[in-house]
Design a protein that fits this description.
Layout: E1 2-4, H1 5-8, H2 18-27, E2 31-37, E3 43-55, E4 63-68, E5 73-78, E6 88-98, E7 102-103, E8 107-109, E9 112-114, E10 116-118, H3 152-155, E11 161-166, H4 177-188, E12 211-214, E13 220-229, H5 238-246, H6 254-266, E14 271-274, E15 282-287, E16 293-295, E17 301-303, E18 309-312, E19 317-320, E20 324-325, E21 338-345, H7 347-357, H8 362-367, H9 376-389, E22 394-395, E23 400-402, E24 410-413, H10 416-423, H11 429-436, E25 442-444, E26 447-450, H12 460-471, H13 491-505, E27 509-510, E28 516-517, H14 520-524, E29 549-550, H15 555-567, E30 573-583, E31 593-603, H16 609-622, E32 629-632, E33 639-653, E34 656-669, H17 671-676, E35 683-689, H18 690-695, E36 712-721, H19 726-737, E37 741-750, E38 759-768, H20 777-792, E39 797-798
Parallel strand pairs: 12-15, 27-30
Antiparallel strand pairs: 1-11, 2-11, 3-4, 3-6, 4-5, 6-7, 6-10, 8-9, 13-21, 13-22, 13-23, 14-21, 15-18, 16-17, 18-19, 19-20, 24-26, 25-26, 28-29, 30-31, 31-35, 32-33, 33-34, 34-35, 36-38, 36-39, 37-38
Helix pairs in contact: 5-6, 6-9, 10-12, 13-16, 19-20
């Protein structure tokens, strides 16, 4: 929103420098992005009058002029052919600066001295829209009086300052000069002098010429219209053109300029229709019908849909409500009678229509933010007042106003104590009243009446914000919020942090990757074509094919990190990530299921299957999980079929037996997969379910005193079939040895000479210790006997 300073000063008589205005308005909540003055780019240009004109002796197109610039008469040589004695025009003196960085110096033209330059309109950064009576290819001859020697920027109305504001979406009232002027009045502590439009009495009755009906009242809360006859199209006066130009709007003619002027002043878009093209003298605000089309003012034919709002006459749509008028809804040189429209359309409806048509306008941008229906009639009255002021036509008496459900005043209890508590300050009730009244709020009997233009204010906290911004945020002391809870991590966050700390201690580095990748990632890890993990959630507007789906397994993300490390000649790496996997819901309307995982990957001289398995078991121990089962996994295509295992735990279920759940898969990555990623060394990886880990986590570790009784050690050298997992053997030993087994260690695995084909030798060390007494040899031998009996059931025997 751009606002000329002098326009705002029509409503509030404040005085300050531009820098002070920008600073104070920003601090009170109306952020000034920048400000500029056209005069900053024009220096040493004055108003002069042609006193004499003589032909140049050595040129058939140059003229030698004597120019009175107030303080002296100077000689200037010009090639312009539109001058005569007595003409008044802008004169750039020696040392003058013009827009674009152009500098004027005295010199000689064909041997005749020239002490400056007579300026054309384009050399001052102006156009014919700004001064319609000027000519484009000659000197700018003024058609109004101006004192000789006066600064040209002041005489031409170029000495005002335009401020550009960043207006937040909740303040559509500040998309107007009146709204910003009210803010300025409150900021500088001066009265806000609002202007109430005075419309002269018209002739006839508008109701006899125009009928208005709002059928779509849910998306059009108000529609007001007026008629002007005997329209006299001509340029707007200079003061109006100046303000429009500084506001970034191109002047066109008096009628169009009035609608733009009111839009800027009141923040309410308006439209002027040629009444000759309103068939039947009837306007209906309705939804478009299926198959309807309209040619808009830009000459484009657009198809309409039933969810779009249109302004229609008896034959069909004449405008897209809140967006753009139709082909014949403008104002032309032949226009004799016009309809001024000021309506209030639903913001979401206008935005949806604008977006669907790919047509965004100044009008739609304002309606999208939600306008005040109470402002429609005053804006219309202001337009009619300007019609009379500019002698642009004859007003027909009355306005047509369809306003089925007027906006009711909003009332909020006035609670100074609550406001002070929210802000952490101590203001008196009167101090708050002195802040709120200049902003248009009404206060009576402990109740605040919110102005109709401020429907963003609905609660105590909104009132507190209004108070705070005029007290000054920089003046509010920093205090601890009363009643604020002390932030502390949740049990899940603490658990995850403990695991990450443990992994860091094991030598792992944490990585972080995106939650989306390419569908080709499934092929990179050799995922079977029928795997349900290939049914990933697709992103509607991806950045590219490489980020087009949400990951269902985090392993490809981790292997990309490993590949990047290997490509960077990192000889060894151990990495982990807290990753989220997204599995599509059975019902596509529901959000996907999010599974939390910890994914590990490592390569290098110190990393193999056994080292990774030890890390995972250490992580289970950190989680307080003692009982788990390890089973070989020979079915995978991502992991090496002979070097992969699954770890299972028992998950408790309320009022039901525990459920066996997969908590981790670990192993060596298949050579074909590492080849896909360009990785040469062996890579081991683990996919651990953080959700299952958390569900079966142990409690807080308890102190265990040092043992009082000595331990007894037994070593067992066993022979088992090759396919029997060591974990199965260990599990049976632990179950059979009972509560006196303190620890179990596998310290040797051997195949070869003296071991039968298809067999392997495993050596375990058992440490037995009684809690209440020293174990005897008989007790230890009895425990070992039970172990051997249990192992015999799966074909495991003592090695002879």
């Amino acid at each position: 929103m751009k606002m000329p300073l002098k326009w705002a000063q029509d409503y509030a008589k404040f005085t300050c420098t531009p820098a002070e205005f920008a600073d104070k308005m920003t601090m009170s909540g109306s952020k000034v992005e920048t400000y500029e003055s056209e005069a900053d780019t024009i220096k040493n240009v004055v108003i002069g009058q042609i006193k004499t004109l003589e032909k140049h002796p050595d040129s058939d197109h140059l003229w030698i002029c004597a120019v009175d610039v107030g303080s002296e008469v100077i000689q200037i040589v010009t090639g312009a052919q539109n001058l005569k004695v007595g003409d008044v025009c802008p004169v750039a003196l020696h040392g003058a600066k013009l827009p674009g960085g152009k500098e004027i110096k005295r010199g000689k033209l064909r041997g005749v001295e020239s002490n400056g330059m007579l300026c054309g309109i384009d050399e001052l950064g102006l156009t014919l829209h700004d001064f319609p009576n000027a000519i484009e290819d000659g000197i700018f001859v003024l058609d109004f009086e101006a004192p000789l020697g006066a600064d040209a920027t002041e005489a031409l109305g170029m000495n005002d300052i335009a401020f550009e504001f960043e207006i937040t979406p909740n303040r559509p009232d500040c998309l107007s000069v009146r709204g910003l002027a009210r803010e300025a009045a409150a900021t500088f502590g001066v009265p806000f002098e609002d202007h109430v439009p005075k419309v002269p009495a018209g002739k006839g009755d508008v109701h006899s010429l125009l009928k208005v009906k709002v059928e779509a009242s849910d998306i059009c809360s108000r529609y007001s219209a007026a008629i002007v006859e005997n329209v006299r199209i001509k340029p707007s006066p200079q003061w109006m053109r100046e303000r429009l130009r500084l506001s970034g709007v191109r002047p066109i003619n008096n009628i169009v300029d009035i609608t733009n002027y009111v839009m800027l002043e009141y923040g309410h878009p308006m439209h002027a229709f040629d009444f000759a093209y309103v068939n039947g003298g009837s306007i209906t605000v309705r939804r478009a019908k299926a198959g309807e089309e309209i040619v808009t003012l830009d000459g484009t034919q657009r198809a309409l849909t039933p969810d779009m709002m249109v302004i229609a006459d008896e034959k069909g749509p004449v405008a897209i409500a809140g967006v753009m008028g139709g082909e014949y809804s403008g104002v032309y040189d032949t226009t004799n009678r016009i309809v001024f429209e000021a309506a209030c359309f639903d913001g979401p409806s206008v935005r949806a229509t604008s977006k669907k048509l790919g047509l965004r306008t100044e009008s739609s941008g304002r309606f999208e933010k939600g306008l005040n229906p109470e402002n429609a009639a005053p804006a219309l009255h202001r337009a009619l007042e300007l019609v009379a002021l500019l002698d642009a036509g004859d007003i027909v008496a009355g306005i047509v106003d369809d306003y089925p459900a007027p906006r009711l005043p909003r009332e909020i209890p006035f609670n100074p104590g609550a406001i002070n508590r929210l802000l952490g300050i101590e203001l008196t009730e009167q101090q708050m009243v002195d802040i709120l009244l200049p902003l248009g709020f009404g206060i009576q009997g402990g109740t605040i009446t919110v102005p109709s233009s401020r429907y963003d204010v609905a609660r105590d906290c909104d009132i507190a914000e209004e108070v705070a911004r005029f007290v000054g945020y920089n003046k509010i002391p920093s205090t601890v919020m009363v009643g604020a809870a002390t932030a502390r991590p949740t049990a899940r966050q603490t658990f995850t942090r403990t695991l990450c700390t443990a992994l860091t201690g094991y030598g792992f580095w944490e990585s972080e990757t995106f939650s989306f990748y390419s569908p080709k990632s499934f092929d990179m890890i050799n995922l079977p074509q029928n795997s349900p993990l290939r049914g990933a959630v697709k992103i509607l507007n991806p950045l590219g094919e490489d980020t087009s789906i949400m990951r269902t397994t985090a392993l490809p993300s981790m292997l990309e990190v490993v590949a990047r490390n290997w490509a960077s000649r990192n000889e060894e790496a151990a990495l982990f990530e807290q990753a989220t996997e997204y599995l599509p819901a059975e019902n596509s309307d529901n959000l996907p299921q999010e599974n939390q995982k910890i994914v590990l990957a490592a390569y290098g001289a110190n990393w193999g299957y056994s080292a990774l398995k030890g890390t995972v078991e250490g992580l289970l121990h950190t989680a307080g999980i003692a009982g788990f089962e390890v089973e070989a996994n020979t079915e995978g295509t991502t992991y090496h079929p002979g070097r992969c295992a699954n770890i299972y735990v028992q998950v408790p279920v309320a009022n039901a037996p525990p459920v066996r759940a997969l908590v981790a898969t670990l192993g060596e990555i298949h050579p074909a997969v590492t080849a896909n990623y360009g990785i040469k060394p062996r890579v081991v990886a683990a996919d651990i379910s953080l959700d299952v880990l958390f569900a079966v986590r142990g409690g807080t570790p308890e102190f265990t005193p040092l043992p009082k009784f000595p331990a007894t050690t037994r070593d067992l050298a066993l022979v088992a079939n090759l396919e029997v997992p060591a974990a199965t053997i260990a599990g049976r030993i632990q179950a059979a040895a009972g509560k006196n087994l303190e620890s179990l260690t596998l310290f040797d695995v051997y195949t070869g000479e003296k071991i039968a084909s298809g067999k392997k030798s495993l050596a375990y060390s058992l440490v037995l210790r009684g809690k209440n007494a020293t174990l005897t040899d008989q007790d230890a031998d009895h425990a070992v006997a039970k172990v051997l009996k249990s192992l015999a059931e799966i074909g495991v025997e003592l090695r002879s």
